[in-house]
Design goal:
Blueprint lengths: L1 E3 L13 H10 L4 E4 L16 E12 L2 E9 L5 H29 L16 H11 L6 H9 L12 E2 H10 L3 E4 L7 H7 L6 E5 L7 H10 L4 E4 L23 E2 H11 L4
Parallel strand pairs: 1-2, 2-3, 3-5, 6-7, 7-8
Antiparallel strand pairs: 1-9, 3-4, 4-6
Helix pairs in contact: 3-4
Length: 271
Amino acid sequence: MRADLHMHTIYSDGVYTISEVVDMALRVNLDMIAITDHDTFTDTTEFRHSIKTIYGIELSTLHNGESIHVLGYFKNRPPKWFVDKLEEFKERRLNRALEILNLLEKHYGIKLDNKFVYEANSITRGTIGREIVKQTDGKYTKAYVFSHFIGRGCKAYIPSLKISTEEGIKLIRDAGGLVVLAHPMLYKSENMMEVIKMGFDGVEGIYPHFHEDIKKYRDLAGKYQIRFITGGSDFHNLVGPDDGSNHGNIGDSFIEGNDLIKFLGELGYEC
C-alpha cells in the first residue's frame, strides 16, 4: 500500500475539487490519501468508498518570525469545538484577504473581482497570487506577483495572523489528532532544530525534491523520540520539472511498508 498524506484542494489554495484529487490519486495507484487544507477541515467522508482517506489539516503557525506548518491527522472526524475554532481562523483570513485586495488596488492599480475570497474556506496569499495571474490574463507570473506585490516587504503584504507553533500542536492534540511537522527541509535550520523538539508525534521526512534527505529525517526522528515519519506531495496544482515549485504532483512522494504500518498503528487502525 502507498499513501500520499499531504495535498490541497479548492477549499484552501489548491486548484482542484476533492473529487478531482481523488480521481488523480486513483490514476497513480495510490491506496490512501489525506487532504490537508490550510487551517480548514475538509470533510472527505463521502469519498471513503472510492479510496481510503485520512482526515487531515495543515495549520499555519509562527515560531521566531518564521511560518511553520503543522499537519494534523485524525482517525475520526474532529470534534465540533475544533471545527468551530477553525471558523475563527477563516474569518481572520477573509478580513486579511480583503485588506490585501484594497492595497493591491491602492498601490498597484490592480482591481480584482473579490468573489473568490468568499468561495474558499481558507484564503492564503497563494490563493490571491493565483487570482492575480488569472484575472490579469497571465500578465504576471505567480513568482512576479509574490516578489513585487504581495511578498514580504511589498506594499500589499500583510503578514498572516498565525497562532504560535506550540498553540497549534496543543490544538490538534486536544482534538485527538496526531501532530506532524510539515516539510522540515524548508525551514531555517536553527528554527527547525528548535521546533522539532516541541513534542511532535511525527515528521514529514519524505517530500518532493528532497528524497535524498530521507535518512537525515529518520535519524532526527530517532534522536528526538519522534515515533514515525510521514510523506506526501504537498499537491496544489499540476507542476512540471521547470516550474520551480517545492510542491509535487499527487503520488510524487508517499509512504509505504513499515512507515505506513507505523503511522496507521499510531492513528489507531489495526494493521
